[in-house]
Write a structure and sequence with these properties.
The chain has about 425 residues and is an alpha/beta fold. It is built from 13 helices and ten strands. Strands 1, 2, 3, 4, 5, 6, 7, 8, 9 and 10 form a ten-stranded mixed sheet that branches.
Length: about 425
């Protein structure tokens, strides 16, 4: 290989690397800030978002936790074309995925029991049907509990026509319940939520045992039937006093379809770290899970669940470096797949090219010899022969042919010299 060719190889490789780096720099590097649509302050989901933020910051990613009014607002924010909010929490069963084509799910993170607390003076409420005709707080219209409570009540024949529904958040509903302004309130939250413990221990307030939970879940498959063992909420005061049936949905995490893969994997790892430990209602490693999702599961999330965790690069490199290397490989591997076969074929192609060129000169030499032998004009034949030798000399001096093939030219020049000698040409 000549110096010129080596220089071209190096320059070409440099250009390819520059292009790859530019592509990664401009389009593939993951962002260093994210937004999470959480929920009202003080709720389980808002506090969970704060935990996520702490883990994100360990990876060098700043998180903006957005206080919202609940599931439907979270969905609207993440689904928005221009707001560019990457993640949001939603309550299972509260939304129709067909209305939000820009969203994908990352899986469920925890059970969300549907609690019904009511005034003790109403007597023992045996099942949800006993709430007909009562004043019932069902959450904000933007909250998942609002949609789920309305759906459950409607299924047993309780509607706004035969009962009074009030759109109150859980704090306002608690105040109204304690002030005897409502008869019952719906809320959804994990059993560890401090508000749940407070309600269990509030005088004059009882909690529904959901004896018909199994029947409801058979009719509405988005709900689960769980058992809350005696004393789980408060061992000191033995709350609940007996094992309880619970009806529960799940909280899930949704993301924009365009969210960067590296962010998805980082979020999945954080979900794993935060929700893998056992809780009052789920076993260790039960969450996060790829079930009970209202939206199509992200392909990155599917890959995460299928392989049991983070990809190799995400395990061994910092967040940004893993993304950079992974995407760089996606660019370079196809290029190498093209360059390598070409580099292997290059010597053979070069030999074919220059051999073909030298053979063309031999064809010219044969024609000149025939002209001499057939008695053609000697002056023209001699001029052509001298011109051929001059062209060969010029090629050798200009080093247009690689050194490994110069022997072809020297052999050719020797053969031309022999022809000239044969016909008496100096």
């Amino acid at each position: 290989m000549t110096k010129k060719q080596a220089t071209l190889y190096i320059a070409g490789l440099g250009i390819l690397i520059a292009i790859a780096v530019a592509v990664v720099e401009l389009f593939l590097l993951p962002p260093n800030t994210v937004d999470i649509a959480a929920g009202p302050k003080g709720t389980f989901l808002y506090e969970t978002a704060q935990k996520y933020a702490q883990e994100f910051e360990k990876a060098g990613v700043k998180v903006n936790v957005i206080e919202t009014n609940g599931t439907l607002e979270n969905i609207a924010l993440v689904n928005h074309d221009t707001k560019n909010i990457e993640f949001g929490f939603i309550e299972g069963g509260a939304a129709n995925s067909a209305n939000y084509p820009n969203l994908e799910s990352l899986g469920s993170i925890v059970y969300a029991p549907i609690w019904v607390f009511y005034q003790s003076k109403l007597g023992k409420i045996q099942d949800i049907n006993d709430l007909k005709g009562k004043r019932i707080a069902i959450g904000f219209p933007t909250q998942g509990i609002h949609a789920n409570a309305t759906q459950i009540l409607k299924a047993v024949g309780i509607t706004a026509q035969n009962s009074q529904f009030l759109d109150l958040g859980r704090q306002d509903a608690l105040k109204a319940l304690e002030a005897n302004e409502i008869d019952a309130m719906f809320t959804s939250s994990p059993a560890e939520d401090p508000l749940i413990k407070k309600l269990f221990n509030s005088p004059g307030i009882e909690v529904l045992n959901w004896p018909d939970a199994e029947g409801i879940s058979r009719n509405m498959r988005e709900f689960h039937v769980l058992t809350l063992p005696m004393g789980t909420i408060d061992l000191i005061h033995n709350k609940p006093a007996n094992n309880m049936n619970l009806l529960a949905s799940t909280f899930t995490v949704v993301a924009q379809k365009e969210t960067h893969s590296a962010l998805i994997y980082l979020m999945m790892g954080i979900m794993d770290d935060v929700h893998q430990p056992p809780s009052f209602l789920h076993a260790e490693n039960e969450f996060p899970a790829d079930r009970d999702v209202d939206f199509p599961l992200s392909s990155d999330a599917q890959n995460y669940y299928a392989k049991g965790g983070k990809p190799f690069l995400q395990k061994h490199l910092p967040y940004w470096a893993a993304s950079f290397v992974g995407k760089l490989l996606l660019v370079l591997v196809p290029l190498l797949a093209i360059i390598y076969p070409f580099s292997q074929a290059y010597p053979a192609l070069t030999q074919w090219f220059y051999t073909r060129r030298v053979n063309r000169f031999y064809l010219m030499l044969v024609k000149i010899e025939k002209r001499f032998d057939q008695g053609g004009k000697r002056e023209i034949a001699q001029q052509e022969l001298e011109s051929l030798r001059a062209e060969i000399d010029a090629l050798i001096k200009q080093e247009k042919i690689p050194s490994s093939y110069t022997n072809l030219l020297y052999d050719l020049r020797e053969h031309v010299a022999q022809v000239m000698k044969r016909y008496g040409i100096n």
